[in-house]
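Researcher: I've got a protein sequence and the SMILES for flavin mononucleotide. Could you write out the 3D structure of the bound complex as C-alpha cells? I'd like something to compare against our soaking experiments later this week.
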Amino acid sequence: MNVIEAIQSRRSTRAFLDSPVERKSIEELLTLATNAPSAINMQPWEIVVVSGEEKKRLSRILVKRMRERNISCGPGATRPLHPKFVNRQRELLNCILPRLSAGTRFEEFINEGSCNFYGAPTAMIITLDRAFSSARFTDIGIITGYLVLAAHEIGLGTCPIGLITAFEEEIMEELSLPQNRQVIIAIALGYPDPESPLNKARSGRAGLDEVVKWRE
Ligand SMILES: Cc1cc2nc3c(=O)[nH]c(=O)nc-3n(C[C@H](O)[C@H](O)[C@H](O)COP(=O)(O)O)c2cc1C
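Model: Sure. Here is the predicted complex with flavin mononucleotide in place.
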C-alpha cells in the first residue's frame, strides 16, 4: 500500500477482534509513527500503551465513570457552531446508525464504545508535559495521524478517542502517571473485525469548495 492508498482507504475501526496485538507489532508501529515531524524536533509526546488486563480494568473504570457523570461525546465548542459542522456530525450519525444492532442508540454506542476503546485489546494514551503550551497540541495531532496511517499499513485498525480526556484524573491515577503529564488523546488499537458492518462504514468528506479558500 502506498501513502495515497493508505490515506484513501483508512477509516476508524469501531469493532475489533479479541486477538491481542503482539508487542513486536506495537513496537513496529510506534517506530514508524515516531518519525512524525514536531516543532524544533522536540518530540513532545509520551505514549502509554495499555493492554491485557490493565486495558480491561481501565475500560471498566471509564465506562462506570461515564455512566455516573453522564459524559457524552461532543464537539468541544465554546459557542454555537455553524450549521455545516452540525450537518457533518449528522452525516456521521447517518453513516453509523444503520449499522448498529436494533435498539442501540447512537450516543450510547459512541459513549460506551469510546470508553471501552470499542473492545480493542490495546489503548494508546498520548500525553504531553504540562510545561508545554497548547501550541504543542499540533505535534500530538500529527503523530496521531502518523499512528493511524502506519497502523493501517500493517493491518491494524485504530480509532482516535478524544472523549477520554473527560476522565483525565481517573486515567492519571489508574496508570500512575506523574502530575506533570496531560492526557491529550487515546487511540484504540487492534485487528479490525472483518465481519462487522461497522467497519464498512465510510464517513464522507466536504468538498474542497467548502474547506479551501484561494487567494492569488
Ligand atoms: C481528535 C479526535 C477525537 C476523536 N474522538 C473520538 C471519540 O471520542 N469517539 C469516537 O468514536 N471517535 C472519535 N474520533 C473519530 C472520528 O469520529 C472520526 O475520525 C471521524 O468521524 C472521521 O471518520 P474516519 O476516521 O472513519 O475517517 C475522533 C477523531 C479525532 C481526530
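Model: The mean pLDDT is 96. Strands lie at 45-51, 122-129, 157-161, 181-190.
Researcher: Great, I'll pass this along to the crystallography team.
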